[in-house]
Every structure is written in C-alpha cells, then in structure tokens.
Amino acid sequence: MSGRYARCFAALSRADRGAFIPFTVLGFPDRVACALHLEILARHADALELGIPFSDPVADGPTIQRASRAALDAGANFAGCLQLIAAVRSQNPELPIGLLVYANLVVHRSIEEFYRRAAAAGVDSVLIADVPSEEGEPFAAAARDAGVAPVFIAPPNADDTALDRIARLGAGYTYVLTRRGITGTELAAGLPAPELLMQLKARAAPPAVLGFGVSEPRHVSEGIAAGAAGVISGSAVVNRLMRLPVDGSVNADFEDWLVSMHEATRIKNIS
Questions:
Q1: In the annotation, is 49 catalytic?
Q2: How far apart are CA 39 and CA 41, in angstroms?
Q3: pLDDT category, 246, cuts 50, 70, 90?
Q4: Domain coordinates in residue numbering, the chain
Q5: In CATH terms, is domain 4-263 a member of 3.90.700.10?
Q6: Which residue among 16, 46, 49, 263 is the active-site one?
Q7: Are 8 and 53 a contacting pair, CB within 8 Å?
Q8: Is the pLDDT of residue 268 over 70?
Q9: pTM of the entire structure?
Q10: Where are the alpha helices (DSSP H) in the chain?
Q11: Helices and strands of the chain, counted as H and E runs
Q12: Among residues 16, 30, 56, 60, which one is catalytic?
C-alpha cells in the first residue's frame, strides 16, 4: 500500500490537527465541472473521498442520490471516473484518495480487476458501502494484493467480534458512523460513544474517521475533540456544489466554507 494515509495522519498529529476529508460524486454534475471541483476540493483537503456513481446507492441520502443520477445522466462510467482520479493524483502526489463504491461495481468483472484498475489510477483506499466486515475477507485480500487499503465501517452497535474483525481486515482508516441510517445533512450529526473510539484504538485499528451529517465547522471540531483522527463531509459538500453555476465555477462563499471546515480541525482551536 502507498502509505499516504499513514504519512497524512502522522503529519496531522504532529501539527495537533485532525483530517478534513470532503466527498463528492465523480462525474457530477458532468465530467468537466467535476474536474474543476476536484481541483478546489483538493486544495482545502487533507484527503479526498470520492464516489463512483451508482443507480441504487442504498446507503446514501437524497442529495448524493441526485448527484449520482445526474452524473450517470451526463455519461459517467467507471473508466471516466478513474481518469478523473488519475488527473487529481498527477497534481497531488501525496494526497490520500479514497473511493466509496457499491459491491455490484466491484464484482462486475472481477474483484481483482477492480482493485488493479483503481490502484493504477492512484486510489489509496476503497470502502464498499454495502459489504459489512462479516463479508469482507475476499475484498480485503484482493485490495491488499493490489496495494489498496480496504476500509470498513464501524457502526455504533458493533460488538467485540465485529471490532476485532474490522481492526484485523481494515487499513488506511476506519469509517466510524456517528449514527445509524443513510447519509445526509437532512439529519443531524451525532458523535459516537467514546468507548467505540477507545475500543478501536485498543485494537490498533486504522485511524477512526467520522462520517454522516458533518455539515458545519462545529461538527468537525466536535468530532476531532471526541478523539477521531478526521471527519468526512459528503452531503454538505455535494449540496453546495449543486448550487454552483453549471459551468463548474466556484464562488468565494463555497471556498470560504471549505476553509472554515478545514480550520476547524485544529485541536488548539477546540475549546
């Protein structure tokens, strides 16, 4: 594996910071606009999480569902998404890049081919939203063989057996749910029980990154203060991208919001 996540989290720890990881759907609203958006997001991110558009994203709320449909309607496909990632990688050699996908996309041809192609484009990690850790062994093995970190979800109700398995199989980071349900800023963010973060750390699991409902700087700072190594903001990013001009141009308000989210990861600013 590339080691970009390890280097990223180590550098952030030395700087008393957590990671801000924005998410968007590849190919949304179209390929040209998405390429411009990715340049801006990378400028204000410690890592990126990117979604391959899918017709039935069951773990995602209405905002990301609409973005996925728009990307597919604009002609997005796997090969084109990998080309967008390769362009980001060429400009950001040390930026960790993660993919969020669904299992149908991974097994469409073969698991091994999916991970080989992802790695060749510059992907560091893959999280399969509808594959729980109980079913993760073959995916984790294929990912590691290709040099890609397999990421698993730690739900709020994970028992000891599940946490042991997540720590054993996972790499890069651990996606910790702040609550059960689907993604979206329509529902408020929450914080995981401190015990969950401590249990993951005790098992030497990959660094905990919080997701779901992260839409404001205070959500970022609360997550870092709770002990997370970083936060992912998805629906809030995509919702703001939806309000931008169709040519993909980015306004000052959007960049100011990204700056405020990134600045909120500074531990010294958290009271």
A1: yes
A2: 6
A3: confident
A4: 4-263
A5: no
A6: 49
A7: no
A8: no
A9: 0.93
A10: 4-14, 31-43, 62-73, 78-91, 103-107, 111-121, 137-145, 160-169, 194-202, 217-225, 235-242, 252-263
A11: 12, 9
A12: 60
